[in-house]
């Protein structure tokens, strides 16, 4: 379904269906749980087909794709979703009818504001699953626009849900269309009440001009994440090596294409030799992860980005570079403290700082783009975390867990569900 007229007709049906015969919240939870549980079985034939199709479209290593899929499937099982609903709404039945709110001394109802449109990314498969499940939980018509680079996960999971519940087929639309089809893009976005969009800032700016001023605009642009390692960790070789391996795992996931993929690691030391030792540990860890999860094959232009990145630092007399024989991974040690993105594709900058407390001032120029800090700190650092949060950091996570955010946490500093509904109060 790619024609604007067909999509409009389907969305009209979805609006009518949600108004007249919405599925109960318990039914949604049970159905999503059933499909997710089945797909978590490594022997399930549909799971195997999904992973094969994801590999064909993304090029990410099959074992990595299986780990990514499992993380997201566990996040949409019933117990986890029930915890998320309670965390955001207290009484989840507020999504279905007015319910007493004893704190406010009134009754609240959280209906859908109307059509929710999701503009999904092409480089990450995870958001597709969450977009579909969150749309169903928040009980209203939806359209999920999939990318041509990842047209697999959302449509296949939707088909599996509809096989469980054939009467769900008219609840929403999961489809895609070319970027060049401005007519369809304009028709969909101008009808939206909420738009959740992932992409580069230029893409988001273009989409924003088509969204009505009264619609809720929830953009998720490119972000930059970084890591910090304190001197207590660096001075213990066994701990240092373990932390380097955790950081390498965070870099390997999604081939460093995610917003939570670290680009820079700040190591707290005044000794250049100590910082270089950590860089060597990181290079060795990336080499091992390349054996376990080989990075996908790059296009000529992508490979040129890696070569240009390396050439820049190889020409810097103050830097030192460790790299694979091909373009699989790169580690650069440099004394320059500024926070800057790398070329990605498993490329990391190691930067020494004499005191981690300096970092809020160092990273503040990137405030609009900050996402996650991966940490390995061997002492209390509450004040530093507060100061980093005040300059824009959205999340703090131990190294080795950056790509596995808790399912009931926030997403890029925003609630996962409550932005998708309105609140009506009865006084």
Characterization of the model:
There is one protein chain. The protein is of the alpha/beta class and 427 residues long. It has two domains: 4-222 and 412-426, Aldehyde Dehydrogenase, Chain A, domain 1 (3-Layer(aba) Sandwich); 224-398, Aldehyde Dehydrogenase, Chain A, domain 2. Helix content is 43%, strand content 17%. It has 15 helices and 15 strands. The strands form three sheets. Strands 10-11-12-9-8-13-14 form a seven-stranded mixed β-sheet, with helices on both faces. Strand 6, helix 9 (201-208) and strand 7 form a beta-alpha-beta unit. Helix 1 runs parallel beside helix 8 (182-190). The radius of gyration is 23 Å and the shape is globular. The mean pLDDT is 96.
Structural key phrases:
Aldehyde Dehydrogenase, Chain A, domain 2, 2 domains, Aldehyde Dehydrogenase, Chain A, domain 1, 15 helices, alpha/beta, 7-stranded mixed sheet, globular, 427 residues, 5-stranded parallel sheet
N- and C-termini, Cα separation:
44 Å
What's the CATH class label of the largest domain? Alpha Beta
- Spans of at least 5 consecutive residues whose pLDDT stays below 50 are none
Write down the overall geometry: globular
- Strand fraction equals 15-25%
Which fold name corresponds to the CATH topology of the largest domain? Aldehyde Dehydrogenase, Chain A, domain 1
What radius of gyration results from the CA coordinates? 23 Å
Helix content: 40-55%
Give the second-level CATH assignment, the architecture of the largest domain. Answer: 3-Layer(aba) Sandwich
Main sheet? 7 strands, mixed
Query: Which strand order spans the largest sheet, edge to edge or round the barrel?
Result: 10-11-12-9-8-13-14
Oligomer: single chain
- Average residue pLDDT: 96
The count of helical stretches stands at: 15
| Tally of DSSP β-strands | 15
Question: Structural class per helix/strand content?
Answer: alpha/beta
Q: What is the CATH superfamily of the largest domain?
A: Aldehyde Dehydrogenase, Chain A, domain 1
Order of helices and strands: HHHHHEEEHEHEHEHEEHHEHHEEEHEHEE
**Whole-number total of structural domains:** 2
């Amino acid at each position: 379904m790619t024609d604007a007229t067909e999509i409009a007709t389907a969305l009209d049906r979805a609006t009518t269906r949600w108004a007249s015969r919405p599925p109960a919240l318990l039914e949604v939870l049970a159905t999503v749980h059933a499909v997710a549980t089945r797909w978590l079985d490594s022997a399930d034939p549909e799971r195997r087909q999904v992973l094969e199709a994801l590999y064909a479209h993304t090029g990410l290593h099959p074992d990595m794709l299986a780990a990514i899929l499992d993380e997201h499937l566990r996040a949409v099982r019933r117990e986890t979703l029930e915890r998320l609903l309670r965390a955001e709404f207290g009484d989840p039945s507020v999504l279905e009818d007015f319910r007493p709110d004893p704190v406010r001394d009134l009754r609240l109802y959280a209906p859908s504001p109307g059509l929710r449109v999701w503009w999904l990314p092409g480089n990450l498969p995870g958001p597709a699953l969450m977009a579909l499940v969150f749309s169903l939980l928040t009980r209203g018509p939806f359209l999920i626009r999939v990318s041509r680079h990842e047209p697999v996960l959302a449509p296949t999971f939707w088909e599996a849900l509809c096989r469980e519940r054939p009467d769900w087929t008219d609840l929403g639309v999961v489809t895609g269309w070319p970027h060049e089809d401005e007519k369809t893009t304009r028709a969909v976005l101008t009808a939206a009440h909420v738009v959740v969009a992932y992409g580069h800032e230029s893409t988001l700016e273009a989409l924003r001009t088509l969204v009505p001023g009264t619609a809720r605009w929830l953009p998720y642009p490119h972000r930059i994440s970084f890591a910090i390692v304190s001197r207590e960790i660096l001075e213990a070789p066994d701990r240092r090596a373990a932390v380097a391996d955790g950081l390498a795992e965070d870099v390997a996931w999604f081939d460093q294409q995610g917003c939570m993929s670290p680009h820079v690691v700040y190591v707290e030391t005044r000794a250049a030799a100590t910082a270089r030792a950590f860089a060597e540990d990181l290079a060795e860890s990336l080499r091992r992860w390349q054996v376990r999860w080989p990075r996908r094959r790059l296009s000529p232009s992508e490979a040129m980005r890696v070569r240009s990145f390396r050439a820049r630092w190889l020409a810097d007399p103050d830097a030192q570079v460790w790299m694979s024989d091909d373009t699989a991974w790169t580690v650069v040690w440099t004394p320059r403290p500024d926070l800057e993105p790398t070329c990605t594709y498993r490329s990391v900058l190691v930067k020494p700082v004499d005191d981690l407390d300096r970092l809020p001032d160092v990273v503040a120029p990137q405030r609009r783009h900050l996402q996650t800090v991966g940490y390995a700190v061997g002492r209390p650092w509450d004040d530093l975390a507060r100061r980093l949060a005040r300059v824009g950091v959205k999340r703090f996570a131990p190294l080795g867990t950056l790509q596995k955010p808790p399912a009931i946490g926030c997403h890029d500093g925003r609630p996962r569900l409550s932005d998708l509904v309105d609140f009506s109060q009865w006084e």
